[in-house]
Amino acid sequence: MAKAIMIQGTMSNAGKSLVAAGLCRVFHEDGYRVAPFKAQNMALNSFITKEGLEMGRAQVVQAEAAGVEPSVLMNPILLKPTSDTGSQVIVNGEVYATLSARDYFAIKPTLLPEVMKAYNALSGQNDMIVIEGAGSPAEINLKDADVFVNMGMAKQANAPVLLVGDIDRGGVFAQVYGTVALLDPDERALIKGVIINKFRGDESILTPGIRQLEALLGIPVVGVVPYLHLDIDDEDSLSERLRDKPAALVDVAVIRLPRLSNFTDFRALEAIEGVSVRYVDSVSQFGAPDLVILPGTKNTMGDLLWLRSSGLEAKILRFADGGGAVFGICGGYQMLGNSVRDPHGAEHGGTVRGMGLLPVETTFEEHKTRTRVDGRFGRIDGVFSALSHQPFTGYEIHMGATGSAAPIAVLSDAVHGTQRSDGAQNGNVYGCYVHGVFDGDAVAGTVVRALAQKKGVDPDALGTVSGEAYKEKQYDLLADAIRTHMDMDAIYRILKEGVKL
Q1: What global pTM score does this model have?
Q2: I want to staple 296 with a disulfide (CB 3.0 to 4.6 A). Which of 67, 192, 198, 261 is the partner?
Q3: Whole-angstrom Cα distance, residue 340 to residue 365?
Q4: Which sequence positions are flagged as catalytic?
Q5: Which residues of 439-457 are buried (b: 16+ CB within 10 A; e: fewer)?
Q6: CB neighbours of 100 closer than 8 A, spacing ≥ 6?
Q7: Backbone dihedral angles phi then psi of residue 343, each to the nearest 5 degrees
Q8: Virtual CA dihedral for 52, 57, 58, 60, nearest 10 degrees?
């Protein structure tokens, strides 16, 4: 069975996912078979495995860093919020139920066998497992339900814990000390090291505080990791990439819907020098973009009504009427049509009028489509005509079925071995169901060059990048930072010694 180490945080967004990914990369570079694991993930950024199963994006990033194929074993439970108080619960990659928080906590202990079955399968296949916690282990109101999230999982896996604190938000010593103080004695004994994350400045200034913290807790600080400016997929809506930013030569405005999902769809566009991808949630931020993207959402009808009430729908309609390019993906594609019907009550029930920019109608079905696809564009009109007949790959995650008399692509379903048409177009307005449609170098490059030409900008003024090579370089840079700023000898020693429960 594999050796395990667990990364927990003093709070959400302390940097657990990135530290776990960095350790996965280091162990992989050192020749070990390593896999990530997070028993329960809450995020709207998800991914479809080659088997057609759904898992959290953070563990996909960690799997890529570890040089292994993403597997739903790495994230057996995924919670996708559908409202402020409820989530769609996905177990082993398939929809289990949509539950309120109270109802989920009531059934949560019954899922422990599924979690341990997944963990034990991974453990039998690898030398090391890097486990990621969720939120904070010191959420004392939730501790009774922590059977497999933070300290509950550490105990199940006999895993020593590294506690990550976020100094960028301030009060890191209080974060760490307070977290440890709120734990039970047997839980404190599991913490074998502290990591101070997102540090800016002269580390020597921290030294007195670090020594005092170590003396108070009896736990060593095994790393002070600087604020890393790396382009690695983020887990959720706390992502810094969603912050407002200035426009560049080619300006892409992604509408930041309240239940925005899979914003990783646009990282290939962001990686091209001279292209800005701005996330817009108000009319005042709209500006004068070259392309407007309506992204995926976990609640198409609710977010469409928000779009309408915010004034952004009217802004987009005027933009499209003036010849502006608009592209919708998944839920965003559904919004661009004439109507969205929900006869089974998957979201709101009833029918909501769409934006009317594409000649399509959407009806929510009772089953969820989850599949990987290989696609090829057909004849494309308008500004993106150069996409005609180009291949692409991606994945689908949606409840709705959308009929179209003007599809833009043919998809080969990698799971079921079938072919079907997808998407629609109308002038410079386009839509499809495929997440990752922009990921390929050729597609992303064609899109931004077409936008530059339409704007009168020399396309050669834009940079070029290989998405896959660029991503691998980011993981290598992350591993270099982990080796430089963390005591890897101590980490290996902690792994070897483990814990005695």
Answers
A1: 0.85
A2: 261
A3: 11
A4: 330, 435
A5: bbbebbbbbbbbbbebeeb
A6: 85, 86
A7: -70, -20
A8: 40
